[in-house]
Amino acid sequence: MDHAKRPSSGSEEDDRYMMITEDKKRKRMISNRESARRSRMKRQQHMQDLNNQIMFYKNRRTEINQSISNFTEQFTAIENQNRIMRAQKEELRKRLEAAELVTSYLDAAKGYPVNTAEEPWYYNLWQPSQSMPIMTSAEFFQF
Length: 143
Description:
By secondary structure, the chain is mainly alpha-helical. The chain has one helix at 10-108.
């Protein structure tokens, strides 16, 4: 037998076992370091994404607050215009009422002469007209 088996000593096996174990430990250590590095990178990226979201939402909040401020100003301006227009409407309603009253007086006064020389027509509204006689009853002068 040319190839005689050499009896392996315990120390050779121990050395080989130690080398294999050390190699596995080294590979595991390298793998763990890479995993930790990836984890740190992933966490860093996640933090960056969260910070970007924070900035986005802060900017969005500022825009929304500005829009609310603009709408509030517009609402106040429109509310003021509305108040003015209501007051104008009331004034116009009163003027229309007065004009209708004058028109009704004019309609009632048709046939009465209107003095247009110097005085306005409404100064003579309560003056008796010469075209209509004043009638009194006999009991009017009894004491």
